[in-house]
Each structure stands twice: as structure tokens, then as C-alpha cells.
Amino acid sequence: MSTDIPGIDPLLALRAPQDPACDVFLTGTVFLDIIFTGLDSAPVRGTESWARGMGSSPGGVANMATALARLGLHTSLAAAFGDDHYGEYCWDALEQGEGIDLSMSHTVPGWHSPVTVSMAYEGERTMVSHGHEAPAPAMATVPGRTFPHCPPRARAAIASLAPGRSEPWVASAARHGARIFGDVGWDETGRWDLDALPDLAHCEAFLPNAEEAMRYTRTDCPRAAAHALADRVPLAVVTLGAEGAYAVDGRTGATSEVPAIAVAALDPTGAGDVFVAGFVTGTLANWPLADRLAFAGLTAALSVQEFGGSLSAPGWVEIAAWWQQVRTCADQDPAALERYAFLQELLPAAARSWPLRRAVPTIGFRQ
After folding, report:
1. DSSP assignment, residue 205?
2. C-alpha triplet 183, 192, 159: angle, nearest 5°
3. pLDDT per residue over 288-321, tens digit each?
4. Which one-letter DSSP state was computed for residue 279?
5. Residue 48 to residues 41, 43, 122: CA-CA distances in angstroms?
6. CB contact at 8 A, 81 and 113
7. pTM, whole model, 2 decimals?
8. pLDDT of 104-159, one tens digit each?
9. How far apart are CA 214 and CA 280, in angstroms?
10. Which of 187, 193, 282, 339 has the greatest number of C-beta atoms within 10 Å?
């Protein structure tokens, strides 16, 4: 269930009657995630391992959709859902629990939901997934819609770039005024060729991690990689893991680097998605670049302290509780706290104490 503080809308001061109803559109595959945590080591062949924690939640593209919705953005998701119990659970969790618009999504009769089992240990994760590609929806089942080539009018869209693949909806969204944010995964082809990412040309911002950025730019330093990427996109943002993030504005040449928040990481699943959601939120709210990086890093840091992908995405309740708690710690560096002072005007007094827990170990209880 979403834990947004009622009334928190990061774009409230910018909204106008002629604006699109949708803040962010995205599409992709929804998985059912089953997450095991509290493992002391990797599972050993021929033995049984017991995990101290477990959670279940919608995963895949649902991680980012949930993170966006919990930060107060009106989010539209186009995805296929199986007509099994897993698909029904994921649909209800996203639409009813998180308030995500699924009018662009569809249920596929006879198609089972993709599933990922994630095991978190030693600050890393190992995943095993199973699924089949969903068939394209028949136009008869989605009246008046060419899925997903005609996305709804939106302030922004998030595109998952893949080598050799161009998604027509990305160009369509850009033509209709959406600001495109591109993320990327591991290049299984091993080519690491930016020219093989045709939709990069439509992106306002590109947000790879350090390893991806260096491979794509043939550099040996993530900061050098960010500068090289800024020659291709207006804004290059490279995540540096425990070191934070570094960004280069290709239009102005301005750079910004914000260190990561040191936390005890329980499960890194979905942290990259949460970072992108936080950065998109700050960008649409017209925050300075350093504030956007800091906010994205904060939301990602809060997420790794919980297990699960979409389960762990923080809302304004979690952010407010963290801000209230961190300012009362005697050993806090005042200069470090100043980096997050912009939160003060955004947040009400926290209604709940820190830490917060939301993960549950089951698919769902009947009411």
C-alpha cells in the first residue's frame, strides 16, 4: 500500500489546466518478485538454505512505476499482465495499492506471469527468472489504442534502451512534448556501441551506472565517461554506487557530484530504479542539478534498507521520517546535513517514527 503523505505534490506549484494528466509514462515487463534476504552466503549446491527474511511484490518495470507514484507523480504504466493469480495480485497492488494508471495495460488470457526469485547476501543479489514474452494485444481487446506506439500525453517518459532496438513510442512521446529519460542495462552483445541505441537521440537525460558508462565511452573513469556522454545527450548522469553520483550538463558544461549516504544495505534490488524516479521527480520540479542528485541518492539509499524492489521504494512518509531522525543524531556532519536542507520546505513533520517497515512475506491476505 502506498504511504504517501496526503497533499504532497512536488509539482503542485507548476501545474496548469492545460498540462497533461500524466506526469510520467513508462512501459515494460512486470514480474512477480519473490525476495529472500538474511542469507549468510550464496546458496550451496546440494544443500538447503534458510533465509531470515522474505518479501513478495510486483517487480520489473513495476519497481520504477511504484517509486514514481510514491513520490507523488501521476504515473501511467503500459504492461502485459497474466490472467493467473500472480498477474491479478500485481495488477491490484499497482492500481489499487499505488494508484498507478493501468489504462494502457492489458491482461493476456492463458499467459502466465513472469517470476523472479532474488536472493540478497553480502550486499549483493543473485536472481533467477522465468517467463515468456507476452503476445502483442489484439486491437479488439484494446479498443482505439495502438499499444504501445501511442502513449498518453505526458510531462516525461522513461525509456529502457537496448542495443539494436528502437521503440516507436519513444519518438512519439518526444514529439508530443515528453521529456525522455533513458536508462540502460548490460549489453549482452558485448559491443557497447552508443550508435546501437537509436532512441538515445530522443533522450534529455541518460542515466547509466559507472561500469556501463565506461564501457560505452571506452574510458577508464566514470567522470570522464559522463563528460563523453554529455556530447551525446543534454544531461549525462552516472551513478557511482557507494560513491554517489556525478552529472554533466552538456548544454552548459556544468557538473555536479553528490556523495552517497552511508547505510546498512539489506537488499539492493530496485535501487537503480528508485534513483531514476527520484531524479525524474526533481527534474520535473525544476530543482537545481545538485538537489536532484542528492534527492535521487537519498531515495535509493532509503530503498536498500528494505527488501524487495517496489516494496522498498520510499514515499514522502519515509523521507520525512529520515529527515526528522537524521537531524537529531549527535554525530552528524553539519555540512553534510546542509546538502539536504532543501527538503525542509518540502516536508511536513513526520507522522511516523523511523525506521519504517512495509515488506510482507506473502502474496496477499484475503480480506
Report:
1. E
2. 20
3. 999 999 999 999 989 877 766 677 889 998 898 8
4. H
5. 12, 8, 18
6. yes
7. 0.90
8. 999 999 999 999 998 877 767 788 999 999 887 654 344 444 455 678 999 999 99
9. 23
10. 282
